[in-house]
Amino acid sequence: MALVIDTDKENDLEDLQYDIEDSRKTDRWSDAPAEIKDIFHELEWNIIDGEHTGTNEYIKTLLGRDISPRTLIAGPMAAGIAEVGRRFKMDEYFLPEVMMSAKCMQVALGVLKPLIVAEKTEDIGTVVVGTVQGDLHDIGKKIVAMMMEAAGFTVVDLGVSVPPEDFIAAIRKHKPRIVGFSALLTTTMNMQWETLKLIKAEGLREVVKVFVGGAPISQAWCDKIGADAYASDALIAVDKARACIFKYKDVKGGDPKLHADMLVIDAEREAMKAKAAVG
Ligand code: B12
To answer: Are residues 100 and 207 both part of a single domain?
Structure first.
């Protein structure tokens, strides 16, 4: 039985910024045993410092202590790369440092992927994912792809900087139930819209449900471009994708009803969180 550690409450970047500057430790991971908490901090620092030669060891040690791959991704790995993003934004880090940290994330995901994908027990349909044209960020998209795979989907990952025409070709070839666009740059988010426009122009809008995500993407953006669903993280993406297959199977891509149904999933999730916080 894997050790359960609540990662939802651990994303306070201000706390991360100030506490770790002084001591390289924080008050976070309060429900983790002290020894695990220390290794979480080591892993965070491994990512912040971009020391990818040691990443494997931390990951393996934590897996050996019954920490699940999902907890590692949503916990110390997410916190570490978020701090890297903050440093980059504040001009404390430049591209080479970010690339080193990204390498740590890739190494860690390489170890975790087979474990996560091994959870797959059924085949419920195909999802095509890709990072839109002009954008080279793929860590988040890879996490979404892995979680989708574990949840029963066959995932076709088109990679990074995918031109709209390649999404169209993949939809025709693989006949996915869902297509997901990732964008991490404010300058490339518009390519989600362009790709969606081409899907419509090619007469494919009704056959595929369109998901959008990435750091600058929001529900408002999803509404504006007429995508079916937005997910701020991989777990929400999986919830919505499974709902598309099971609950809303007969609702077509682009149907306003589907869009509204997806919002209900967010509302239910928020209500569950609020209930858990009170209880
Ligand atoms: C790592 C990184 C890089 C790495 C990427 C390596 C890689 N293989 O991915 C490298 C060094 C290559 C890089 C390059 C650049 N980067 Co960069 N990068 C980052 C950084 C620090 C982390 C991104 C990340 O991996 N986050 C962790 C993952 C897990 O989170 P995520 O991607 O958001 O994914 C989650 C959700 O969004 C969602 N999701 C993601 N995709 C999808 C898709 C679907 C369908 C769904 C449903 C959900 C979903 O689920 C994921 C998992 O939970 C961010 C900072 C940040 N705060 O995002 C900057 C950041 C995105 N980069 C930035 C910039 C400016 C650049 C460069 C332009 C820098 C430059 N001068 O060259 C280049 C652009 C290159 C290009 N053409 O794409 C800016 C963008 C600012 C802006 N307004 O657009 C950011 C925000 C940094 C900053 N604060 O300024 N970068």
So the answer is: no
Specify if 47 maps to a domain: yes
Q: Find the helix or strand (DSSP H, E) in which 137 lies.
A: none
Cα 137 to Cα 128: distance, rounded to the nearest angstrom: 17
Q: What is the pLDDT along the chain (279 residues), one digit of tens a residue?
A: 566 666 665 555 555 555 555 555 666 777 888 889 889 989 999 999 999 889 999 999 999 999 999 999 999 999 899 989 989 998 999 999 999 999 999 999 999 999 999 999 999 999 999 999 999 999 999 999 999 999 999 999 999 999 999 999 999 999 999 999 999 999 999 999 999 999 999 999 999 999 999 999 999 999 999 999 999 999 999 999 999 999 999 999 999 999 999 999 999 988 988 888 776
Which of 173, 237, 236 shows the shortest CA–CA distance to 209? 237
| C-alpha of residue 191 to centroid of ligand 1, in Å | 15
Rounded distance from Cα 137 to ligand 1 centre (Å): 5
Residue nearest atom 45 in ligand 1 by C-alpha distance: 180
Please work out whether the CB of residue 239 comes within 6 Å of at least one atom of ligand 1: no
Residue range(s) defining the domain that contains residue 86: 13-117
For the whole prediction, is pTM greater than 0.85? yes
The residue written with tokens 């997901």 in the block is 180
Q: For ligand 1, is residue 138 a contact (CB within 6 Å)?
A: yes
Pairing of strands 125-131, 178-182: parallel
The residue out of 86, 117, 148 marking a domain boundary is 117
The verdict on 23 and 70 lying in the same domain is yes
